[in-house]
Amino acid sequence: MSIDMAQFHQVFFEESFEGLDIMETGLLNLDMGDVDAEEINTIFRAAHSIKGGSGTFGFTSVADFTHVMETLLDEMRDGRRQITQPAVDVLLGSVDCLREMLTAIQDEQDVDEAKVTEYKKQLEIELNGSESIETTAIESVEAAAKKPVDNAQTGWCIAFSPHAHLLKTGNDPVRMFRELATLGKLTTTVDLLGVPDLFELDAEECHLSWQLDIIGHFPEDEIDDIFNWVEDDCDLSIQILSEQEGLDGQAAAMESIAPSQNLKTDVSMDTAKPKETGLSPVTKPNSNKNKKESEKSVAKTSSSIRVDTGKIDTLINMVGELVITQSMLSLVGEHFELNKLDQLKNGLSQLERHTRELQESVMNIRMLPISFVFSRFPRLVHDLSSKLDKKIELVLVGENTEVDKTVVELLSDPLVHLVRNSLDHGVEMPADRIAASKPETGTITLEAYHRGGNIVIEVRDDGKGLDKEMLKNKAIEKGLINEDAVLTDKQTYELIFMAGFSTAEKLTDVSGRGVGMDVVRRNIQSLGGNIEITSKLGQGTTIAIHLPLTLAILDGQSIAVGDERFIIPLGAIIESVNVTDDMINRVVGKGETFRLRDEYLPIVRMHGIFDVVSARATKLTEGLVVVVDGQGMRCGLFIDDLLGQQQVVIKSLEANYRKVEGVSGATILGDGSVALILDIPGLVRLSNQ
């Protein structure tokens, strides 16, 4: 019985992509000319794991390609080769190529063989030099021409006896034999003596052993590489073999691990490499088509996250507490009497507390460090700064700040746009920086931190900053605003988020087509967040993204406006006040404001915004004004009453209905009714308009 290895493919791909990220980060941290043994070993181990795993699953082109990378890294870690920038650049390009190969195999697409060949050639040139490759090729051709046709080929005799548990480790001898068959002409002889009787047979254990004779010219190291992953799970003997030696040497080798061979079967292996389809090589070609399509669909949609065991332990403890509380309530309910009412109330109070803690533990499992996003930017900055002939240092701050997995997945593309803009438009050329009395090397900082119920991610650069006059003139030139428009600094900076706006003087593959920044703001707002810009001419620019920590659950304040219920995110509320006539100030055509400790704040009448005709309070002195903050701007929401605080599960309004200005989502209350969750930054923008 063969184990279907396809079930492990998803784990292999996830671990391989993680290994590629480790390799990329390590290569970017290498010091030229200096061998950091630990760093090189980390990169080497990642490459070795990918090579071994791909060989096990039959992805031979990946294993072959990684083998060349591994050889180059091995020479670096042994000190036989200095670390040079050209070598690092070739390895970085090879990491990209390897990532594309794995993606293609995972999606069951054809691998770009031309690209693989090109990168493999670059690796071999870096290893041997172009002249060495040509010389080796010529010498090989000449040697082959001079070699007598009848000269005996040399090879190897391998005695391979797996331990019984080998199959349970995920290893399959057939795949190893296929790898061997790529080296030369292979003949296998299987020994069935160890197979027990049918009723004693354990189908998950290996009871076979083999003698493998392979004819060809290649070093023993290539055989060692194939059996490297099972060296602790088998008995192995490798001896030199030539055709003239006949069976004498074979028998001697086999005798060292198998005392007798009463039953043998000769099998000739096809030397053609197995086709890489992303399926297990032992899967029959006529497998059910619908089953394969179903497996493919599951593989593409499945995803996983790695969770710290401490979080799992906390979750298990909370479930235990919940079970105890449930048992207590069950006992109270079996023979309930009025004198047990206090006991019932205490039990329900415990149940509420444990449920809340359990919910927090479950949500905590979904939290991932923002480093999952930040880790891609050192490579981006390295490549683009080289392309733009700029010297730029990337500083990462707050990499361990945790945020919901969904936010992490959707945050990557907007951040890429912002960092690319800082590289292209923000940081100046080295000569310009020196002329401006700045260090030759510019700095881009990515920082993440928590503020209230939000996570804030800042992209800062110490470049030339934003020129307000130039921004306004560009917007007028493109017809985006009128010539007589009066804009505040904030409104001027936000011109860059308008569709079609660009300050680039020429088109490049980095920027200049006027697309991207408007998409960035739209994507951030779709996550329930907002983006703001601050800048000083000649000193730099900061772009701050404000996002909720989770897109699933929030703490909210329930409010009443007539018969309608709304939810205000608790983190946005500053205070609530009863206003008096002397606090109110009305500006004709501009709306209403009220004075709060020497500050005038705009008032948003909730019944007017959402057309609630049943509102009980229409005069400002009759209801309540809730002061809220939306990304640094404040306003007062005029409502009928405060109802209570509660946690709510967020449901997307846009997905189920359409986008509504001032509303970020909806939730279902305990009585089954629907309440809208207010988008405070959106309401603040409405109040300013």
- Enumerate the strands of the largest sheet in spatial order, edge to edge or round the barrel: 15-19-20-18-17-16
Any idea what the CATH superfamily of the largest domain is called?
Histidine kinase-like ATPase, C-terminal domain
The figure for the number of domains is: 5
Query: Percent range for helical residues?
Result: 40-55%
CATH topology call of the largest domain:
Heat Shock Protein 90
As a whole number of angstroms, the C-alpha radius of gyration is 34 Å
Low-confidence stretches: 131-153, 243-302
How would a crystallographer describe the biggest sheet? 6 strands, mixed
In round numbers, the mean pLDDT is 78
Distance between the first and last residues' Cα: 72 Å
Label the structural class.
Answer: alpha+beta
Q: What amount of the residues lies in strands?
A: 15-25%
| Highest CATH level, the class of the largest domain | Alpha Beta
- Describe the global form: flat
Number of strands: 23
Summary of the model, kept short:
The protein has five domains: 5-146, Four Helix Bundle (Hemerythrin (Met), subunit A), CATH 1.20.120; 154-268, Alpha-Beta Plaits (2-Layer Sandwich), CATH 3.30.70; 309-360; 369-548, Histidine kinase-like ATPase, C-terminal domain (Heat Shock Protein 90, 2-Layer Sandwich), CATH 3.30.565; 553-688, CheA-289, Domain 4 (OB fold (Dihydrolipoamide Acetyltransferase, E2P)), CATH 2.40.50. It is 42% helix and 22% strand.
